[in-house]
Design goal:
The chain contains seven helices and three strands. The protein is mainly alpha-helical and 184 residues long. It starts with 5 loop residues before the first helix and ends in a 5-residue tail after the last helix.
């Protein structure tokens, strides 16, 4: 069986639920806030669908709509269902190393003055706090509309990680101050 990318898995997962045409997929992606956890742009949906077709994981059928042009409706194949099950198993089974450009900044922050490093880290903390607020609101909204628990988890997991990140940033700023005999 061929492997699929995370973006292909996001689209294939939607087709696992039900057959859709491209614009419907875009609406679902928007409604579910999927762009918060996957890098799928509107323009890439059809490109991904074509790749999934080439891999024989989906098929399409023209649907006639009165007064409108026909549109392609995509349906997952049996092989596509097996691939999606395998991809889900793979993604849920192992914690993979995530590469963050922030770590490159930390690696070379000694080229900055301690004051500048603290200034930039404070800005990073501020952007982290904004993202935390957004995710808290998203969790609350999804709880209020009775979204499935796994959908809420797509917001609560990064929220927990960002809260830990904020704690780490606060401690790191204090460590910089201590190593450089700086006061608050």
């Amino acid at each position: 069986m061929t492997d699929i990318s995370d973006i292909e898995a996001a689209i294939l997962g939607l087709l696992y639920e039900n057959s859709h045409h491209g614009y419907e997929l875009e609406k679902i992606i928007e409604e579910r806030g999927m762009r918060n956890w996957t890098d799928i742009g509107f323009s890439s949906i059809y490109y991904v669908l074509k790749k999934l077709e080439d891999k024989e994981l989906v098929v399409n059928e023209l649907e006639k709509v009165s007064g409108k042009p026909s549109r392609k409706v995509y349906t997952i194949t049996y092989q596509g269902k097996l691939m999606m099950q395998d991809k889900s198993r793979e993604l849920l089974s192992e914690n993979i190393k995530l590469i963050s450009p922030f770590d490159t900044g930390v690696a070379y922050m000694d080229i900055l003055t301690p004051n500048k490093a603290i200034e930039y880290l404070t800005s990073y903390r501020s952007s982290t706090e904004k993202r935390i607020k957004f995710l808290e609101n998203s969790v609350e909204m999804h709880q209020n509309i009775n979204s499935p628990f796994n959908v809420i988890a797509l917001f609560s997991r990064p929220l927990a990680m960002l809260k830990a990140e904020k704690t780490w940033i606060n401690e790191f700023i204090e460590e910089i101050k201590a190593h450089n005999d700086m006061e608050d």
